[in-house]
Amino acid sequence: MRVRFSRLVLALVISLGATLGFGTPSHAAGLSNNAVFNNPNDATDKYALQNYLTGLINGTPAGATIRISIYAFNSQAYYDALVSAYQRGVNVKIVADDYAPTSNIQKTTADLKNVLGDDPAAGSYVLLCHGGCIEHDTADDIINHDKFYLFTSTSGSSNVVVQSSANMISTTSGVNGGINAWNNALTLVDQPDIYQAYIDRFTAIKAAQMSDAASSVDYTTVTGSNATTGTSAKAYFFPQQDTSKNVLLDILGNIDCSGGGSVHMAMYDIKDVSVAQKLKSLDDAGCTVHAVYTDQGTSDDSAINALSACGPHNGVAVYRFDKTAPPAAMVHSKYLLVSAGYLGSVQQIIWTGSVNYTSQSLHANDESLLKYSGTPGVFDAYESNNTTLEQLGTYSRAGTC
User: Fold this and answer.
1) Are 168 and 78 in contact (CB under 8 A)?
2) Mean pLDDT of 181-188
3) Cα gap 247→83, rounded to integer Å
4) How far apart are CA 134 and CA 148, in angstroms?
5) 22 pLDDT exceeds 60?
6) Are 96 and 144 in contact (CB under 8 A)?
7) How do beta strands 65-70 and 147-154 pair?
8) Domain 34-211, what architecture?
9) Which pairing describes strands 65-70 and 91-97: parallel, antiparallel, or unpaired?
10) Which fold is adopted by the domain 232-396?
11) Secondary structure letter of residue 47 according to DSSP
12) What whole-number distance in Å separates Cα of residue 395 and Cα of residue 339?
């Protein structure tokens, strides 16, 4: 009887320990597909993405590998997390643009390179690209504009993809694409084909940088090496070298608004007039189209005028953010939300990533775009964020309806 009682007590202790987390690492049960957003106007929530990502870095065990492709890095917090991971035996592999901040200097990728080295044959390294990793062309200000993170293991999950819109910038003053701007991050943990596609992409940009020549991978069409479809996701990679092709127009062309629906966009930079015209045509066709954007001055006027022209349904609802720091922070996210017919069925789909709606993003820079439709709660989170932005943006219209 005493043996049975002792076993019962032990079982209860183990059960409580598992429930309350005694002696177990954070996220021991593993991650789920999720979306994270920051609020640059809040002293705490401006760090939401940074805290989430440094948490994943801190949750990576010895022997695992972190791969990062990033544009701008100016952060003591990310530096400390990555150096700590390296020192405890994590392989940290980074391919980055050679972005060099001119003010508010914190730790940069150059500082990381001093610790991790730059030997691509080693377990850890930092490779810096000039003129883009794929193109190696300095004439047109081409950059590695990626913002993705790959973990072989972290926080109880394996093969984790995080696609963000945020740069790894922690400065607390000035306009930037880090904590002082509205950003998002989408995490996928159940898409092995997509994870492998990102691994292949990382390998391609690493190889192009090592060869000091343009990549031999053909990014001309949305097939093969630059677009991979998973069970409920799809990854697209750029530059798309054939300038007659436009992935964004292809995506928008698959939307069927005959039964109504909604198309909501939050975009740092939209200069592609053809994309703006197509978004406006979707509103004409019966969808409710809302567009949140950051004003780029006169350079985006043609696209914004096309987007905001009047139509059968009084035109697209447009919400402008100025390129400013908190307390009226700019939008740096780059996402599209579709709740409408798409390729023959009504779906709720997210496209997010580093891609601005510009020719530079599509045809020059190193960029990534991630489509996802597998979790309604994740879509709802994006819609909620979009609603928040609309409430804060300045309602504007180029025409009078």
Assistant:
1) yes
2) 98
3) 37
4) 16
5) no
6) yes
7) antiparallel
8) 2-Layer Sandwich (3.30)
9) parallel
10) Endonuclease; Chain A (3.30.870)
11) G
12) 22
Residue 13, token pair as written in the block: 């202790």
Q: Label residue 267 by pLDDT band (50, 70, 90).
A: very high
The reply to whether domains 34-211 and 232-396 share a CATH topology is yes
Calpha distance 186→178 (Å, rounded): 16
The rounded distance, in Å, linking the Cα atoms of 254 and 207 is 34
Query: Per DSSP, which regions of 48-192 are E strands?
Result: 65-70, 73-74, 91-97, 125-129, 147-154, 157-164, 168-169, 184-188
Tokens for 77? 């917090």
For 113-122, the pLDDT digits (tens) are 999 999 999 9
> Angle at CA 246, nearest 5°, toward 240 and 247?
80
**In the chain, where are the structural domains located?**
34-211, 232-396
Phi and psi (nearest 5°) for 265? -125, 140
Name the token pair of 340.
């409408």
**Rounded alpha-carbon distances, angstroms, from residue 359 to 49, 90, 273, 291, 307:** 28, 37, 10, 19, 17
Residue 275, Cβ density class (10 Å: 0-12 exposed, 13-18 middle, ≥19 buried): buried
Question: Under 8 Å CB-to-CB from 191, ≥6 apart: which residues?
Answer: 161, 230, 231, 232, 233
The answer to whether 360 and 239 have CB atoms below 8 angstroms apart is no
Higher pLDDT, 138 or 323: 323
**Percentage of residues of the chain with pLDDT beyond 70:** 87
End-to-end CA gap in the chain: 83
Q: Give the angle subtended at the CA of 49 by the CAs of 46 and 52, to the nearest 5°.
A: 125
Buried b (16+ CB within 10 A) or exposed e, 318-352: bbbbebebbeebbbbbbbbbbbbbbeeeeebbbbb
**Residue closest to 330 by CA, chosen among 392, 251, 259:** 392
Region 346-375: what's the mean pLDDT? 96
Cβ atoms within 10 A of the Cβ of 44, count? 9
Amino acid 219: pLDDT: 52
Give pLDDT, residue 27: 44
Which residues are CB-contacts of 355 (< 8 A; sequence separation ≥ 6)? Answer: 236, 238, 248, 334, 361, 362, 367, 368, 369
